[in-house]
Amino acid sequence: MDINKYQTFADTHFGGFEDIGLLITAFTHRSYINEHRKTALEHNERLEFLGDAVLELVVTEHLYNNFKEPEGILTNWRSALVRTESISAAADREGFEPLLRLSRGEKRASSARAREQILANSYESVVGALYLDKGYEAAKDYITRTLLPTLPQILATGSWLDPKSRLQEVVQSKDGFTPVYRVLQEDGPDHDKTFVIGVFVNGEPKGEGTGPSKQAAQVAAASSALAHYNE
Prior knowledge:
The relative contact order is 0.11. Strands 1-2-3 form a 3-stranded antiparallel sheet, covered by helices on one side. It has helices at about 5-15, 20-25, 30-35, 45-65, 70-80, 85-95, 105-110, 110-135, 135-145, 150-155, 165-175, 215-230; strands at about 180-185, 195-200, 205-210. It has about 230 residues and is mainly alpha-helical. It is built from 12 helices and 3 strands. It starts with a helix and ends with a helix. It has 2 domains: about 5-155, Ribonuclease III domain (Ribonuclease iii, N-terminal Endonuclease Domain, Chain A), CATH 1.10.1520; about 165-230, Double Stranded RNA Binding Domain. The chain is globular.
């Protein structure tokens, strides 16, 4: 393991780290431990747990202090900021990818979605490590610099709305219709069903989604349709 690259990262991004081991752990995936039991002792899930709480507090504090919207809207804005896509993008911008410690199998097999989740988890873990090493204000400063600047774009694009609400706005704006959801397939026993739902605009199929409930499948279908409209 090249400790120097973690030290360089710490110096560049945080002005150093008292316990560089904390930062290395923040980049250590569970799969890496399985392949390096003698040399790697801890993965990043506990730091992720801590960092998630710090992240949510920092974002909540920022929204409360800077906006007067009601609780429901602020909750949606916060969800948009701390969702996997947002924080994985922040991790990517910060250059986390070369620092991730993954098993060889995980490196080969990871889908784009899985890698996005790994990056998001590592961002939360780094926040947790930073909180332990340098305190709340340092963690807050990092989140403020790397994540909060994306809020204006989230608000401008309306991506803080849930997929069904966003799709309805897009469809009514572009086509003048309201999306209609239809069950295309329903499989499995009552206690373990899977639904396939299509979303249609003026009778034309625009997206399809699968889920363990009609609501979940509708959300997946709406997300699929949004991708169609964004092409």
